[in-house]
Amino acid sequence: MTDKCASAVYFDGSCPLCRAEIAHYKGQVGADAISFVDVSKPDADLPTGLTREQAMARFHVRDDKGELVSGARAFVSVWRALPRW
Known about the structure:
Blueprint: E1 6-11, H1 16-26, E2 35-38, H2 52-57, E3 60-63, E4 68-70, H3 72-81
Parallel strand pairs: 1-2
Antiparallel strand pairs: 1-3, 3-4
């Protein structure tokens, strides 16, 4: 398994469950090193190769090496960035 950590998290802020989970992550030690991007906002700054539709449909993370990952790999990347996890 890779030791890459999240540098940007792309989440659906219109989803109550997503908002709650991101709020929890934001409150953790180490979260200040992560950029949290609410992709439900029309002016959200998305990385090249990620459409708004893709970002709304699935959890995505840009890791500290610049790689865009989604799903379980994205969650692992966030957890590695937060020391308590």
